[in-house]
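Run log, item B.
One chain of 372 residues. Sequence copied directly from the ordering sheet:
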Amino acid sequence: MNTENERKGYRVQIPHYKIFVHPIDFRDLRKDIWIDAPVMAKMTIDKKKYEIDLAYRGSHIREFPKKSYHLSFYKPPLFRGVKEVHLNAEYKDPSFIRNKLSFDFFEAIGCLSPKSEFVFLTINGKKEGVYLQLESVDEYFLTSRSLPKGAIYYAIDGDANFSLMSDIDQDVKKSLMAGYERKVGMETDDAFLQAFIMKINTIPREEFEQEIQKMLQVDKYLRWLAGVVCTQNFDGFVHNYALYRNAETGLFEVIPWDYDATWGRDIDGIVMEEDYVRIEGFNTLTARILDVPEFRKQYKKLLEDILENVFNEAFLKPKIEEMQDAIRPYLAQDPYRNQQMHMFDEELAFICQFIKDRGDYIRSQLGNLEGA
């Protein structure tokens, strides 16, 4: 599995991030993996030095031997135009590429999606291995895309289900902000999100088609829905996304986040059969949108176009091969992954088979989107 570059005698280079943390601070950081407080550190990239704050990130992933990190830059204050980045260990993904493949896929089908790239990390001279660097969805995310300012909310748990009922305790929510954390914006912006959720649940059926378009980029939502369905992210309907409200248009848009449990495997790396997630998805907003015949027709046509042009082996296999070729030499140096190279190599065929099987399943279900 050689790229054109390797056949010519050289390999694709991924950035090497060298972090130094004072041993006492690093000991304190490792003492309690659940503490969110960062420690000061220094980082060198291509001979350029940065002063940063370093902290663990994630929830259950903190218990893995290979930790994921959150980096905030303060001297200089920005790094390539951003204030912070996330370094994901991708510990349970034998392919290491599912997150990046997903984000690139979402971008290809017309969704806003975080940028990502592979890096090699050392801390205090010790090799920590290959990481996936993820762009933070924040004000710099908007600026880099020349998008209008607006509030951004992270969906932090299953209560971000667009419902008045809690997904966690199956009772009426105590707050319409349940499940969300404001990343960008002011407290006054919360009223728009609360009104959005309330109206999703209370607009009469005969008015829904017209009224929802005053609050939501419906085409973009359907593209996001198609992306979740194709990649089969089970948690993606009520979690693993960000909400951006364009301050100029007043419309909400959904941005994917945390897509390692995709392309045929769950969060523990266990196989998920290709029919595990139905093409109608789930959550209150999706159910109401697909209750509208015109939106359902639009969604069906969108899925057909994506299956024809993007979600297929001809389009995706070269991208998978390119990613794997880029990181394979570095994974061999990763102390957490270097004994699992056979699993890494087998994932190309596994993911390609999932793409075929999932595509066939979606095609077999398109008839569900027809009729009233």
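Observations after the first pass:
- The radius of gyration is 21 Å.
- The longest strand covers residues 126-135.
Flagged for discussion on Thursday.
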